[in-house]
Every structure is written in C-alpha cells, then in structure tokens.
Amino acid sequence: MSFTLLKKDKTTGARLGVLKTAHGEVHTPVFMPVGTQATIKTLTNEEVLSAGTEIILANAYHLYLRPGEDTIKRAGGLHKFMSWTGPILTDSGGFQIFSLAVLRKIKKEGVEFKSHIDGSKHFLTPEKVIQFQNLLGSDIMMPLDECVHYPVSRDYVEESLKITHDWARRSKAEHVKVKEADRKLLFGIVQGSSYLDLRKRSAEEIAGIDFDGYALGGVAVGEPRQLIHEITEYTASLLPEDKPRYLMGIGTPPDMLDAISEGMDMFDCVVPTRNGRNGQAFTSKGELQVRNAAFKNDMQPIDESCTCYTCLNHTRSYIRHLFNTAEILGLRLVSLHNIHFYVKLIALAREAIEKSEFKKFREEFRKNYKTKSK
Amino acid sequence: MSFTLLKKDKTTGARLGVLKTAHGEVHTPVFMPVGTQATIKTLTNEEVLSAGTEIILANAYHLYLRPGEDTIKRAGGLHKFMSWTGPILTDSGGFQIFSLAVLRKIKKEGVEFKSHIDGSKHFLTPEKVIQFQNLLGSDIMMPLDECVHYPVSRDYVEESLKITHDWARRSKAEHVKVKEADRKLLFGIVQGSSYLDLRKRSAEEIAGIDFDGYALGGVAVGEPRQLIHEITEYTASLLPEDKPRYLMGIGTPPDMLDAISEGMDMFDCVVPTRNGRNGQAFTSKGELQVRNAAFKNDMQPIDESCTCYTCLNHTRSYIRHLFNTAEILGLRLVSLHNIHFYVKLIALAREAIEKSEFKKFREEFRKNYKTKSK
Lengths: 374, 374
Known about the structure:
The structure is a homodimer. Helices cover about 45% and strands about 20% of the residues of chain A. Chain A is of the alpha/beta class. In chain A, the strands form four sheets. An eight-stranded parallel sheet of chain A has the order 4-14-13-12-11-10-6-5.
C-alpha cells in the first residue's frame, strides 16, 4: 500500500495521510506546483523547494511534443532532464489535447490530433500515454481520458464515459506490464460532468479497476463555483477511503480549503504562477494586484506574515516598479511568493487537521481573506 | 583619497587597485553588472551577489522617469528601494537621453527632451542630475555630458566638448555643495569621439577639474573595434595614475581584457544579460548559442569549468528546451551564468595581475576563446 490514512477529521471531511512514491514521501493534503513544460514557470527548483514543495506536476502531452521522447530517453528520464529529485506527478495531457489541440478526433482506439506547435499529426492511445509516462519515470501517472467542458449534454457525457472507462482499463493493463518492483503509481480519473448520477457511475467503474489513487477530472471547466463544490463533495463520498483523492486543476486558496473539507487530498493549479505573472499576489488577507497605483509608495512587503524571499527582501513599491517597467524580476518575485503562499497554506491546513482544528482554521482564513471571485 | 593603486603590471598597462565607497570597497579591475531600472535584468540581488559582484550600475535618467523622485525619496534612496546593500554607480543617463529620447534639444543650460515612455517634457541641467543622484544615494555619480555617435564631424565634436566640459565644471560645483562627510564620489567623463587630439584636450580639461575617477565616454558607439582600442589606450595614457579609470559600456570578454591591458580599471556592459536573454552564453572556450539544434541532446553544462547555479544544476539540452518553449527560466539561467562568467573573469584577471602573469593570462584566454565578433 502506497497510501496511509493517518487521520480523519471529526467535524469535516478533511483527512491526513502520507503517500509513498519512488522519489520520497508526500504528506497530504498537498499542493503540487505546476511545471507543465518541465519548469515551474519563472522559478528554479531551488526556489520551488524553498517554499516547502514536496511534489510537482508536469504534463506528458507537452513533454511528448517538446523536448520529445528521444531527449527524455537520453537524459535518463524527466527527473534528470529537469534536475528535480523529488516526486513528480504527470498529467496525461488529456485536458490539453481536448482543449488546445486542433483537429482532434476521438476514436475508440485513441485520439488523433495536430500539435498546437507545428501542426504535425499525432495519434495517442491510452497504452502509448502510459509507455511515455514510464519513459518519463513519473512517480504518479494519469491515464488518458476525455475531459468534457461545461455545459455539455447528458447524452454526450454518457458516450464519453464509455471511452474514458475503457481507456482507464487499458491504461491499467498497460501499467501492470512493468514488473512490480519498478512499477510507479497510477491514478484513475472520475469524469461525468455535472450529472451526479453519472459521477456515481464513473466513480464505481473507476474504483472497480483498482488504482493507486483517484482523481476528480472535468471540474472547473466552466461551471459555477457552487456546482464545483457539490460535485466534489458528492464524488469524494463515493471514493475508497484508503486511497488518495486528487482534485485536478483547483483552485484559489478558499477553493482548496473547501475541497479539503469535502474530503480531497491533492491539488494542483496554474493560478499562483499564471496570476503571479500578471501581478496578482495571494496573501493571508486576500488577493492583491501589485501593479495597482495605490502601491506606488507602499514600503511594506506583499504579506507581512510571509517568510518567502520576496517578502523578506522587497517592498510592494519596488515590485510595482518592476511590473511597471516590464522587468522579469517582478514576475519571478510574485510567482515565488504565490507558490510559497499556496504550499504553506496547505501545510498549515495539515497542522490544523493534526490538531483537530481544521474547521476553525478554515473559517478564520475565510473571514480574513478578501477576494473578488465568487 | 578614495582610490589606492596597489600595483602596476610591468609588461602591460594593467593595474590593481581598491576604491573605497560609502557602501564598501571595490577591487579593480572590476566588472559592474548593469541594473538600468534598479534590477539586473531577470536576476535577484542574491544571484548577482553569488557571482562575486562587488558593485552594480543603475541609470539616473531611467530612475528619474520611473519610479521618479517621490518614490525614491520615500524609500530612503536607491539602495533601500532595490534592497541592494553594496556600492552603486549611477550613470547620468546622458547616453540614453541623446540616443533614446525623442525631440531632445541641447542648450547651454541643459537638455530638453520628451520621455521615451509617455512623451512628457523634461528639462535636465547638470546641477539637477547631480541633485537627483544625491537623492538616489549613489556611491559613484556621473555628470551629465553629451555622448556623440560615430561618425561625427570634427566641428561638431569641438562644439560638443565645450558643453560637456562646462557641464563637468557645473556638476563638480554642485557636487561640492554637499558637506564633505556625506559627499559621495563623482567621476569626470572624457569625450572627443575618434579625434585623438580632441580626446587629449578633453582629458586635460576634465582632469583639471579634479574628479574622484575618470571615465572614457563615447566609445563603442559605432566605430570599428580597432579604433575603440586605439582611443582607449591613448586616452588612458593621459589620465592621472592615482585615480580609477572607467571604460563605459564595454564589452565582450576579450574587449575587457584588452582594455585592462590598456590601463582601464572599471567596466560595465549590458551584453551578458541582453545576449543571455537571447540564449548566448559566454564560456572559457568562447561564445555559445544554446538555442542551437546541436544542443538538443547535449547533457553537458554550458561551461564545465563554471561553478554557477546554472552550470552546477542544468544541461545545455534542458536550457535549450526552456528557450524552445519560451520559458522564462531559460533567460534567467543564461543571464545568471553570463554575469557569473564576466565577474569571475575579471576577478581572475586581478589574480593574474597580482601574480605578474596578466600578459600570459590574457594570451591564453584569447587562444581558447572562440568568437564570431571581430
């Protein structure tokens, strides 16, 4: 068993656990910074580690196109290629193929698409995606699935689930071809859009295949915030207790705390780096746009309670100047702060669960946190 | 006396010295990374320091426009604004005003120009430029001068020198208004384009005013490489021995070693960061374009003899991938390496002068260094 459930919170669905991977232990709940192209955007590994990061994400689809199989093979896998020594979870890229790639065509066998970079034609099967993730040396692999957007018809979702479930079975079959001692972890992905009965069907089918963990896919693809949490809470209740639960692509700090409360354990999101590059900082008091003219002469750090390099060394005034003059250091400093804030927030949530104070922790956070998002 | 000449090389014009500033000692020869807008492009102060940097450059003209006097004043000066605790030399921005600013008009009193950012009108006098550098708290200030481009008529240069020399005298007069205990260093700038007799006239006039150091301006503004070195060698020979000599805006690694040999002590250049952001790395074996397809599967560091973070942690293959996928980390890693290489090269030159082996050091460097520039 790779996962040990250490504790269940009494007043919420929050859980405390530890996941063993080939490159070290991951303590859950956990936030995983996103390094789509084998780099957490703008940051060095050293900086990502300094935030307390235990595991990062990369994207098999992107790495399959660039740098490609040959380079990854010669480097000796993804860890060596990017010099990251900790655990890596790789997303299959299903989401990217279905949202970014032009002319993608789903067949029973796999998915045909043209590269978003050079228009070259590719055909990926569930087996091929597992093989590539084996080549990457991913600690946690995700199977190819169809990620549908919102809103979508019930009929479409029913047909789509057949493919996703079939691909899940084929992924598992491919995965067990690797001898047990060398085998990494493979998670299953539950789809079903906003149809709760289809989520149930999917959760049962996927759990029946027996994966090392379960992910909730196809959330935050256009549906209202309230619906995301309904789907999350409902689906989490259907998943095996003894396996980690990963909510894909979520979200803002309050979203993550809500999802922990709903029983989810693992999170990834591009928001801290993407928004960071636009000057949006996350703090214990809420969201802050450092480019704002109000900060022109503000000599405080972004967050006075933060211990990241940015907050220990630089003022809002200076960081605003960097954005104002299009200096790359600005993007770095806010991205670094945000990753630090996200990783630290979830670490604090772990502490709170440990002390049986998570409900209070979440409520206090929400009370102090100013946000414009609904 | 702020400058102590420690040693003169016997076989070349190379010198060893130490310059005392309000924020620490600077050992010459020295390379000063350029932080035009109060940031060495893409890098943190910590990274700049890790390269062994003793002093950095900033640009008064740029900082006058953004963030402006008010913000600098409220921050308590440039050091606090950018959190840099070491010495800072600020260029007046004469070069930028004369090359970038639109509709600039030189009058006897000063220079009128429109901001390159928003077209706003400004009038800067030599006095005003010194006052602003006092506000910045610069350890070494440069006076406003007219930097002429190449080629230019002798008549134009003769007229221009009158203004530059007059402004130098007025800058000095403004500078001594600060009481001696608080007074920072002020350098004079020798102009004269490619006319050696005008360089002589300028060197004599400027030296006559008695500055804390002497800079050679208006070089590398379009003239052939050979001519740069003729002007440098000739002018250096006319400058007082007991003051530091600063060659403005030069250059490639071989250029700097040549200029040291010609008797210059201080250097700044945007090349390591500007070219770094384009993927050009400087190494002990010459220049290398990491975006080159040849490096696709090259698992060596940029420079195997280098001890910077980039070379200790990452391969050419990975860095090429970062450039290929437009990832900011690529710009950072090559900029960091280049600054490290430049600062370290000049530190090695200092060691060689110390050991009376500079001539040999320079020849060996040249022998191993492959470059495409003439």
